[in-house]
Amino acid sequence: MTNTSLKIKAAPVRKSVRVNVPPARAFEVFTARIENWWPPTHTLLKSPVATTIIEPFVDGRWYQIGEDKSEIDNGKVLAWEPPTRLILSWRLNSKLEIDDAVESEIEVNFVADGGHATRVELEHRIVAVDAEAMRQAVDSPNGWSGILESYMRVASG
Questions:
Q1: DSSP label at 35?
Q2: In degrees to the nearest 10, what's the CA dihedral of 136, 137, 138, 143?
Q3: How far apart are CA 130 and CA 93, in angstroms?
Q4: Domain coordinates of the chain in residue numbers?
Q5: Which CATH class is domain 9-156?
């Protein structure tokens, strides 16, 4: 085994946003309405994205369908606990390629925050050969910060 094949665990990326809807609605928008807020530029499809789907059960697929009917699997559902918790695997490496050797998990918790608001707490954990490069990418303005801004606009709107 060479050093280039060793997997590294990067520090988790943590992001949080507050949306002005109850946890059940926040969870529903995050999962069942992901096609309304996930950036269309964030895909490996050759065709424009027609829809993005998170299947509502453990071992369900998280995938995108292109306008040309092509599909790409981003990962799968590891935990499905509406309206409080969701964990997804993510198979993308820092080169923006599908890579089954990547051990990447996105945990999202939906925490009641006052009357009708929810704090959405996201933690992205990464174990991969290129873990630090992946961490920098998902922690960038074009990563989870921008993605959650889009989610927040749709959930609160």
A1: G
A2: 130
A3: 7
A4: 9-156
A5: alpha beta
